Amino acid sequence: PADVEQLGRATWTFLHTTAAYYPERPTLNQRANMLGLLNALPSLYPCSHCASHLAGNMKDHPPDVSGRVALSRWLCERHNDVNERLGKDKFDCAKTDERWKDGPND
Ligand code: FAD
User: Fold this and answer.
1) What distances in angstroms separate CA 102 from CA 54, 87, 96, one per listed residue?
2) Which residue segments constitute the domains of the chain, with CATH numbers given?
3) 42 lines ligand 1 (CB under 6 A)
4) What is the whole-number distance in angstroms between the Cα of residue 12 and the centre of ligand 1?
5) pLDDT digits (tens, 9 = 90+) for 3-18
6) Ligand 1 pocket, 95 CB below 6 A?
7) CA of 49 to the centre of ligand 1 (A)
């Protein structure tokens, strides 16, 4: 349904942008908060089949909150897992900053 798509676009925008501006050297507190934010999604994301896929995916691939480059890469890969499952093109993870940090807004 349309709302799952709109919710998805809004959520990816928030998550990729937050990852793009996450510190290169996050404090322990920032790491814990990022981990809390990500770990909350499988339990709270308001698309239940999306949330249960994400839970399985995050079990196989625990979040890397060590710094912005690693986190952006981890998130890009998780998004690509969803893209693949939905039959969409994979995104080139080398272009994450261009899309979500440095590039012009769309
Ligand atoms: P989106 O996939 O929303 O992407 C938005 C923009 O992000 C793209 O235009 C592109 O510029 C950029 N982008 C694309 N891929 C990447 C990447 N790998 N890294 C960085 N940037 C990228 N929908 C379902 O039908 N079933 C599901 O199980 C499902 N699970 C989801 C789980 C999560 C955690 C989230 C956040 C969303 C999920 N969705 C699911 C929604 C789905 O991922 C899309 O958001 C939705 O289908 C709209 O797709 P879109 O083509 O508009 O672009």
Assistant:
1) 28, 28, 9
2) 2-102 (1.20.120.310)
3) no
4) 6
5) 999 999 999 999 999 9
6) no
7) 14
